[in-house]
Write a structure and sequence with these properties.
Its EC number is 2.5.1.17. It comes from Thermus scotoductus. Belongs to the Cob(I)alamin adenosyltransferase family. This protein is mainly α. The chain has one domain: Cobalamin adenosyltransferase-like (Hypothetical Protein Ta1238, Chain: A). Helix content is 58%, strand content 3%. The relative contact order is 0.17.
């Protein structure tokens, strides 16, 4: 099977169920940005040192979940093809909340904004967090035009929080001091 199909050469793509839409459609923007977030998480995983099997496993599970989330977004609510996909649900969101709680106990006390960076894996997690936030904004924009599974928005919101916590954990584990935001003093 060839990787190219030539079906998108006119600037259109297919949603799940064969409906054709322009590639700039808000739904395509939303799941395309989720795909970017997934790639950013993959980069972060590749930069994680070997001594973090729990983080590797967690991030791998999240990457798989993001494919499910992308399928959720690529399938309109009420589509007859819904039965073929796994929609995001409250249990998915709760799983992220449990991970946030678990890793927040390990991260340093939160004293305010920190500059994204530190260990390369932590910096990549911060970058992934910002891409997830953009994906969340795209999904919210889409939800203003047509129905979207609300658990998708909740999942992306929690995921960005988790990635922030994980970046802090990586810096903590690797002995890298976080740099705090130095607020410019007003005269």
């Amino acid at each position: 099977m060839k990787i190219y199909t030539k079906t998108g050469d006119a600037g259109e793509t297919g949603l799940y169920g064969a409906e054709r839409v322009v590639k700039a459609h808000p739904r395509v923007e939303a799941y395309g940005t989720v795909d970017e977030a997934n790639s950013a998480i993959g980069l972060a995983r590749s930069l994680l040192p070997e001594g973090h099997p729990d983080l590797h496993e967690l991030l791998e599970r999240i990457q798989n979940a993001l494919f499910d989330l992308g399928a959720d977004l690529a399938t309109r609510m009420g589509s007859p093809y819904e039965k073929n996909i796994a929609r995001m649900d409250a249990e998915d969101v709760e799983g992220l909340e449990k991970a946030i709680d678990r890793y927040q106990e390990e991260s340093p006390p939160f004293r305010g904004f920190v500059l994204p960076g530190g260990h390369p894996a932590a910096a990549a997690l911060h970058l992934a967090r910002t891409v997830v936030r953009r994906a969340e904004r795209k999904v919210v924009a889409l939800s203003r035009e047509e129905p979207v599974n609300p658990e998708v928005i909740r999942y992306l919101n929690r995921l960005s929080d988790l990635l922030f916590v994980l970046a802090r954990v990586v810096n903590q584990r690797e002995g890298v001091k976080e740099e705090e935001w130095l607020v410019k003093k007003r005269r």
